[in-house]
């Protein structure tokens, strides 16, 4: 698999949230605002890339019998580091993410990539895989968070449309509730499925002699295909 394929597959083709349906809990819990969704996505991306690199480096050292506990210890170390950084420099985001920041330790996306990819591949490929999956996760949270913030609060990234434009419809608070989160989540998944189907759709067969299943028999006749 090429480096570009390793990196890009997580953005759409194997998006961990919208295709593989992993990490649903933080996706729904932290996307009432686009900013918190991006914050969770970037924090997860950092942990994913760093843990993939370390696990790939230690894959021959870690005994298979205790690989999952070892993976969790590595991941927990990076989650603790991210928590300290956010608490010190971005306390508002730290408070917004709350317990879900600590729960990155047991995020299925990170554990899944550690088990399925990092523990079986080289360091460079593992880093690209973690970066691609992390960006795909961040993009999904950003899209869902943007939809919910625009519809539920009438703002985007903290910018009020009413203050900016002078008017804006009454926000629909439904979209910042758990039910609204599930609704937007389902709609975004449906759109991604449509994109994937269009991308994988086979081209139509050629019309005419080139696409005719009886071309071989026609060419034997006098006049060739023109006589068909």
TrEMBL record:
Record's keyword annotation contains Transferase: no
EC number: 7.-.-.-
Topology in the lipid bilayer: Multi-pass membrane protein
Residues spanning the membrane: 39-58, 70-90, 96-114, 171-196
EC class of the enzyme, as a word: translocase
Quaternary structure and partners: The complex is composed of six subunits: RnfA, RnfB, RnfC, RnfD, RnfE and RnfG.
GO cellular component, one term: plasma membrane
Species name: Massiliimalia timonensis
Compartment(s): Cell membrane; Endomembrane system
Protein family membership: Belongs to the NqrDE/RnfAE family.
InterPro entries cross-referenced by the UniProt entry: NqrDE/RnfAE, RnfE
Pfam families tied to this protein: Rnf-Nqr
UniProt keyword annotations, A-Z: Cell membrane, Electron transport, Membrane, Translocase, Transmembrane, Transmembrane helix, Transport
Name the record gives this protein: Ion-translocating oxidoreductase complex subunit E
Function field: Part of a membrane-bound complex that couples electron transfer with translocation of ions across the membrane.
GO biological process: electron transport chain
